[in-house]
Amino acid sequence: xxxxxSVWEFFQNNILTKPAFFIGFIVFAGYALLGKKWYECLAGxxxxxxxxxxxxxxxxxxxxNFRPVLAGLKDRFxxxxxxxxxxxxxxxxxxxxxxxxxSFSMMMMVLLIAFTMNILLVxxxxxxxxxxxxxxxxxxxxxxxxxxxxxxxxxxxLMDPQVVVMLGILLGTYxxxxxxxxxxxxxKLTEGGGFATGHQQMFGIFLVxxxxxxxxxxxxxxxxxxxxxxxxxxxxNMVATGVLMTIFFGTIITILGPDLMHQIDxxxxxxxxxxxx
Length: 277
Hints:
With 277 residues, the chain is an all-alpha fold. Helices cover 70% and strands 0% of the residues.
């Protein structure tokens, strides 16, 4: 019994409560079940784990860079602003769950049961008609966190096992059914790409695909749209995003002014040109 407890504690402390490694092992198990070679399974584990870490670095950089702008808006215009970022919600959910004396490791148990539920629905696809496995790791963690907080907030009297099992079944069913609805729209858009969408907007994709048939013209695809003259540079996604973000942030920062930005952002060097900043 002590050996089992030691194994469980190791799993909980090093994997269950560490989303990056947990997602990596899910990918590893998936590759193994598909009969991939050991080195392909290892590569899948590394990609899953490192990909999650990169995502956290990227979202953290976005939030960190925007924080001085929020502080500036508050100081200059007395505005209470916030970054519309779901990972803020994930962090807030974790803090809230721990503040009421519950272990946030419950979130990983919810995720594990939900993922198992999704697998079962696919295994019995003859009856369920489900063909899709939801493996968008960061969204799985995010939704499990938020759902856990919502249920504990609304039903604080529920015991941990009840919460975990109920949420696991509900989330697993949602992931399976909603992603399954995107199979046909994605196949049509990608000319048989062989995958579905597993993210926040699955019902939206399904709904738009139904509406588009009635009001849209497939010939007017963005792939066929050619912008004239200098506007052609916006055919490149990176250029379009870079220009739009520069205009958006540049306008706000210019309104705030260099003096205020020097005060609230230590990364703005004293000798740095304001335009380049």
